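Priority: medium. Attachment 1 of 2:
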């Protein structure tokens, strides 16, 4: 390829959007909100989906649940206020069918434009109403008979408030006119593209923005069209390169060499009531090897719930302390952080090590005290994201441990790392996650981390017997609870809501708590939720641990980390609303001791097909990896990885589950490009990431 030519083309794409017709400062600002600053950002602003306005569906043939375009004549108009303002328009066509158009937001003028006899062309989703097919708020236009149809599928783009589809389509159309030739546009070497059977980028872009008539609609709808696959490949490649670059930047810093004697570790191991599993030992060795280097460790430890990640983390922390460095452990919720604090105190205090504590609720004198401890070199600190806040300064932070990575974003990890303090050294990073992720996916999503797996549970665990029970049999479930507790067992009753508002969840839990107290007068029923004072919550948890409380009613605050081995029964309310990962996490709270445990998934019929499938999976297996695979199929990787919460990169075309088969080649090619053509790799990232430099300060 001719390099001068290539960079000229880049300039072409790099020109600001204001070089397009009709784009002034105001529109440029609106575009900026969508991450569009340059012409090439428009090339890569890809359709979310397509609408087919190339044909008209006879009204009689409308199918509920499918979008369609219809054309007909207004037969009747009715506007009024029954419960809420509503405009109803009956539209009929030659197929002798009638579809009802319903509008809940409308203006008077709109009604006047729709007298009976007006010919309308409408596009919208079809649903079945009491009287026949309906469209709610369809897009519509008044047309003359014989108005030509669209020749191509209509792309629908991610849009924003001040910027409609029409405007975006025009702008993207203009930008595409400037698309240079393939030989200039292409950043993936020709030979490799041929090996992988990838088409050209130019062709792919033109196809996804303007699918030709006769394009494979069903392939386009599910993202498997060759043009989309070509783009998905490049997008995944970009993500991989971006994460590898991030890793390289972090690794270019120096870290303290933590090559310790192991004296403290030995002391802890001697005192533990168990021996480490082979998997724990292997992962511990991997961590130890990393800590001995003068480059920051970036390691993710995956392990199913109950696989014993905490003790592995504690051993790593001891290594840092032996060398005179501080270790910090951060968890996403206060409850989980409290659990870690309790564990670490039990393990470390006998070794003469104090465990400092910092959470959002630590205020005033206690906070000042904690901050002082950190800046004066407290050896071990546990806390929540409060550890990352301004004003928190460490003396010599050597190791950062982050539990439940999927709740924290890359940025947050970086923030804590920057607290490292000690001159030019950055701390080692250890990330723990209980979300088992299929291997290919892990390699892609965590390309910035080395991955270790604790793929073995401690001996003596018995699988949790799981049943799904309809809410109509709630009475039986309560009775079963009574019998189990009479035999000295303990139980969780977990209350869940769809929208996880702390307040509503707390209320729901309070109601159930009262119900169970009334139904089980002979038993102690406790309550924990996220809105309680941590001291009160602590007291209840402690009572449950001691066995003084038999039944613990809880919100999903107990999802992670709670560890009471004698609790062997769990009831999960509204189980049909929860995802597999969350159900698995919750269920992981039981089955920790040596009694056979059980889990009751209480649901409210009717079950959707998806919910039925999820509950079925839960009944069949307790294996976190199998559940994760299934979850990936059912929900897609965004949910599995928790991207929603973390703000990890969202993909434009790629879909990790659907396109997983591309990943091995993506990883190979990405690493090759970084090694042999770093400039090319950088340009790929620039192209896809848009104008905002993502992890620029890594
Ligand atoms: P998770 O991986 O879910 O964080 P934890 O670290 O909370 O798991 O460990 C779960 C329970 O298993 C704890 O009570 C812990 O003390 C115990 N445990 C950890 N490792 C072992 C082991 N090798 N043998 C027996 N019990 C263990
Ligand atoms: Mg844990």
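Attachment 2 of 2:
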């Amino acid at each position: 390829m001719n390099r001068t030519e290539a960079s000229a083309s880049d300039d072409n794409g790099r020109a600001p959007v204001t070089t397009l017709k009709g784009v002034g400062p105001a529109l440029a600002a609106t575009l900026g909100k969508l991450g569009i600053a340059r012409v090439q950002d428009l090339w890569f602003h890809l359709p979310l989906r397509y609408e087919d306005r190339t044909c008209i569906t006879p009204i009689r043939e409308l199918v509920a649940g499918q979008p369609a375009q219809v054309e007909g004549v207004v037969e009747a108009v009715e506007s009024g206020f029954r419960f809420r303002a509503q405009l109803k328009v009956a539209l009929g066509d030659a197929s002798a069918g009638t579809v009802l158009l319903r509008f809940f937001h409308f203006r008077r003028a709109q009604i006047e434009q729709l007298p009976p006899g007006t010919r309308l062309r409408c596009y919208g989703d079809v649903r079945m109403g009491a009287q026949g097919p309906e469209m709610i708020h369809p897009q519509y236009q008044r047309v003359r008979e014989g108005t030509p149809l669209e020749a191509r599928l209509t792309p629908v783009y991610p849009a924003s408030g001040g910027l409609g589809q029409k405007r975006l389509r025009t702008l993207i159309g203009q930008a595409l006119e400037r698309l240079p030739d393939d030989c200039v546009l292409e950043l993936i070497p020709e030979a490799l593209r041929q090996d992988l059977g990838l088409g050209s980028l130019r062709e792919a872009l033109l196809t996804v923005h303007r699918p030709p008539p006769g394009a494979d609609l069903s392939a386009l709808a599910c993202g498997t069209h060759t043009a989309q696959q070509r783009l998905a490949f490049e997008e995944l490649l970009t993500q991989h390169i971006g994460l590898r670059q991030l890793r390289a930047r972090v690794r270019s810093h120096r870290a303290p060499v933590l090559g310790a004697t192991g004296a403290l570790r030995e002391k802890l191991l001697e005192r533990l009531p168990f021996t480490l599993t082979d998997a724990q030992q292997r992962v511990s060795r991997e961590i130890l090897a990393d800590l001995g280097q003068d480059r920051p460790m970036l390691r993710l430890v995956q392990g199913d719930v109950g696989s014993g990640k905490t003790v592995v983390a504690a051993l790593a922390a001891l290594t840092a302390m032996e060398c005179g460095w501080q270790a910090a452990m951060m968890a996403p919720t206060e409850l989980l952080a409290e659990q870690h604090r309790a564990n670490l105190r039990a393990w470390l205090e006998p070794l003469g090590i104090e465990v400092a504590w910092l959470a959002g609720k630590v205020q005033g004198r206690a906070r000042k005290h904690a901050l002082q401890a950190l800046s004066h070199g407290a050896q071990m600190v546990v806390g929540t994201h409060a550890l990352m806040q301004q004003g928190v300064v460490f003396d010599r932070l050597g190791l950062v441990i982050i539990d439940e990575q999927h709740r924290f974003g890359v940025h947050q990890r970086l923030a804590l790392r920057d607290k490292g303090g000690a001159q030019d050294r950055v701390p080692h990073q250890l990330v723990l996650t209980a979300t088992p992720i299929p291997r290919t996916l892990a390699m892609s999503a965590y390309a910035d981390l080395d991955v270790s797996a604790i793929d073995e549970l401690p001996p003596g665990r018995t699988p949790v017997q799981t049943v799904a029970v309809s809410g109509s049999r709630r009475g039986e479930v309560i009775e079963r609870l009574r019998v189990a507790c009479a035999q000295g067992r303990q139980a969780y009753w977990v209350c869940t809501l769809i929208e996880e508002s702390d307040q509503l969840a707390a209320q729901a839990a309070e109601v159930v708590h009262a119900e169970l107290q009334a139904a089980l007068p002979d038993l102690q029923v406790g309550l924990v939720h996220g809105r309680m004072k941590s001291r009160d919550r602590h007291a209840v948890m402690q009572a449950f641990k001691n066995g003084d409380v038999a039944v613990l009613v809880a919100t999903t605050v107990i999802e992670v980390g709670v560890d009471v081995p004698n609790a062997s029964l769990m009831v999960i309310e509204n189980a049909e609303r929860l995802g597999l990962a969350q159900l698995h996490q919750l269920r992981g709270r039981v089955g920790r001791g040596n009694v056979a445990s059980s889990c009751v998934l209480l649901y409210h019929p009717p079950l959707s097909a998806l919910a039925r499938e999820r509950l079925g999976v839960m009944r069949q297996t307790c294996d976190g990896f199998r559940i994760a695979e299934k979850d990936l199929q059912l929900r897609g990787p965004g949910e599995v990885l928790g991207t929603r919460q973390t703000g990890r990169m969202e993909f434009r075309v790629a879909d990790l589950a659907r396109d997983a088969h591309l990943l091995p080649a993506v990883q190979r090619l990405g690493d090759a490009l970084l090694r042999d053509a770093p400039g090319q790799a950088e340009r790929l990232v620039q192209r896809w990431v848009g104008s905002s430099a993502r992890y620029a300060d890594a």
